Amino acid sequence: MDANGQQKAQEALDAEIKSFFDSAPPLRNIEDISKDLRNFVEMNSPQAGTESARKVVCVTSGGTTVPLEQRCVRYIDNFSSGHRGAASTEYFLKAGYSVIFLYRKGTCQPYCNLLPEDPFLECFEFTEESGIQVRQPYSEAVKKAISEHHAAIADGRLLKLPFTTIFDYLQMLHMVAISLRSIGPHALFYLAAAVSDFYVPWESMAEHKIQSGLGPLDMRLVQVPKMLSGLRSEWAPTAYCISFKLETDVKILLEKANAALKKYKMHMVIANELLTRKEEVTLVTGNEKIHVRRDPELVGDEVEKHIVKHIVEKHSAYVDNSDHKVSRA
Ligand code: 9Z3
Fold it and tell me: Which residues form the DNA/pantothenate metabolism flavoprotein C-terminal domain (predicted)?
């Protein structure tokens, strides 16, 4: 495509993004989110007298929904348990990062992987003599969940922001990106959320529950504008950006990851296949492909530990290189 064609394509994308945001239902708790983000960024910014900002990663996690009715009864969902995002959050915190955990309500939470499915009912017991107590088999798991999670929040190193719909998610991602601009290359985006590709624009969506009995349902879904380009070039142009590519056909996986890397100018794309995603992934950058596997012989070894280790190295090199460029400018 020549320069003129590129400019036209960019203008068309900008118009689609603008129309998505203009027509999206506004976030209900926008004031609280803004305040939490402001406080979090301030706590993680360089204080007078100290040399540098903490590294901050925005981890997105879980799938976005696409409502079919404004007073939503039905919706389309994207698969993601949130395990990748929750586990990665723990490893980033361990590596000294502060984390904004942008997650789908109801999906996996950091430090909770050892808890049973219904922790409230299964982990506790009540007797008249001793009141509420943790049941013995869960005492370590509950201690870990409560102590590590609460410490990260209290120290201002973990901020958790829940979303449900594609409208919430993209508006919140935009807010996070704008807030992290002030820390420049110290910001990292780790986009593990499974994001809808198609949606029903708010203004063309039925207000009330769609009635059955009228025969087959015809519904037009339009493409969600590719916000990765916006994130990379405008929202957070100095941050290190990593997206994920999920496929079910392993034969096209690396090719698609490479295409995403180039198209959206990501610094890294992590390629994973649905069935093996907990065992292995490939980290694709402009000049290498790093295959990462968990060690099945090692109890508790998780692929996220290896992913985060590589990312920490790459991001450090990126920050050093950016400092160098800034100081020479
Ligand atoms: C992923 O590929 C994640 O690794 C998984 C993690 C969702 C597979 P779980 O949450 O699974 O641990 O159960 N996320 C990105 C999926 C996605 O929507 N990618 C888009 C695409 O492939 C690009 S943004 O086109």
Answer: 55-102, 175-307
Measure the CA–CA gap between 301 and 297, rounded to whole angstroms. Answer: 8
Note the helical H segments in 181-219: none
Q: With a 6 A CB cut-off, is 194 part of the ligand 1 pocket?
A: yes
For 170, residues 6+ apart whose C-beta sits below 8 A from its C-beta are: 20, 21, 24, 224, 227
With beta carbons less than 8 A apart as the criterion, state whether 211 and 68 touch: no
246 pocket-lining for ligand 1 (C-beta < 6 Å): yes
Stated pTM of the model:
0.94
Q: How many CB atoms sit inside 10 A of residue 41's CB?
A: 22
CA 78 from chain centre, in angstroms, equals: 14
Q: What does residue 112 show for φ and ψ, rounded to 5 degrees?
A: -110, 10
pLDDT of 247: 96
How many C-beta atoms surround the C-beta of residue 214 within 10 A? 7
CA 39 to each of CA 4, 34, 44, 77, 173: distance values in angstroms, whole numbers, following the listed order: 43, 9, 9, 32, 17
Q: What is the ipTM of this complex?
A: 0.96
Q: Let me know: does 188 contact 55? Beta carbons within 8 Å.
A: yes
Residue 125 has phi, psi (to 5 degrees) of -135, 160
Report, as ranges of residue numbers, the positions in the chain whose pLDDT lies below 50.
Answer: 326-329
CA–CA distance, 79 with 88 (Å, rounded to integer): 18
Distance 114 CA to ligand 1 centre (A): 22
Burial bucket for residue 244 (CB in 10 Å: 0-12, 13-18, 19+): buried
Q: Is the CB of 266 under 6 A from ligand 1?
A: no
| pLDDT at res. 9 | 84
Q: CB of 78 within 8 A of CB of 61?
A: no
Beta carbon of 104 within 6 Å of any ligand 1 atom: no
